[in-house]
Structure formats: C-alpha cells, structure tokens
Amino acid sequence: MKNAIKLFGVIALAAAIGFSFVSCDEENNEEDWLDGTTWENSTPTLISTISFNSPNYTLIRTATGAASGTTENGTYSISGNTVTLTRDNGFVVDAERLGDSLEIGGLIYTKK
C-alpha cells in the first residue's frame, strides 16, 4: 500500500512538471510589444515617426509641410520597460515605455 501511494505521488509530481512545461511559452520574447508597430510624435514644426521590425527600427523626422525628412536606422533591444535604440553609427539612446506611449529623448510617441 505504501508503494502504491509513493507511486501515485511520483506520477502526480511528474504530471505537474509536465503541465508546467506545456503551459509556458518556449520563447519569452519581450520585443513582441514593439515588433510590427509604428509610433508618432507631432509638434507644430516636426513630425517624428518610428517603426519597429524586430530587431530593427527606422525613425523618420519630417518638418511640418515638407515632402521628405531625415531617416535614422538602427537596432533595438528591450529589458522590461526600457528600450535601447542603437543607431547604425553606434550612438545609443534609451527609451521608456509609459503605459500606451513611448518616451524617446524627452518626446512622447503614441502608437499609430
């Protein structure tokens, strides 16, 4: 009888461990919340749009009323609510997720 109880306990433990593996994502990709999104900041003189396509980003700054603007490309990584933008020239800028917005260099971007 004791052996049957021990066997039942081992089976229950193995089942619990098995279910915990099945229920967890195999990859915990924090970048999913940015991947495929576009964010915009608009002032009276400048429109800035940043698009994310993991692991890359493109930031376009256009003067209000202008046909084209300047483009900045780079890569990004996420740790919690902090987004690290690394420009192609190596310059690094940290951004912060603030609820439904993104703060980059003091400017607040909203999701389009």
Summarize the structure.
With 112 residues, this protein is α+β, with helices and mostly antiparallel strands.
User: Which segments are poorly predicted (pLDDT under 50) over 5 or more consecutive residues?
Assistant: 21-28
The overall pLDDT average reads 83
CATH superfamily: YedD-like protein
Stated plainly, the CATH topology is called Lipocalin
Q: Count up the domains.
A: 1
Largest sheet: 8 strands, antiparallel, barrel
Which percent band covers the strand fraction? over 45%
CATH class: Mainly Beta
* CATH architecture grouping: Beta Barrel
Gyration radius, rounded: 23 Å
Helix-strand pattern: HEEEEEEEE
Helical run tally: 1
Kindly report how far apart the N and C termini lie.
65 Å
Total beta strands: 8
CA-based shape? elongated
Structural class: alpha+beta
Helical fraction: 10-25%
Question: In which order are the strands of the major sheet placed?
Answer: 1-2-3-4-5-6-7-8
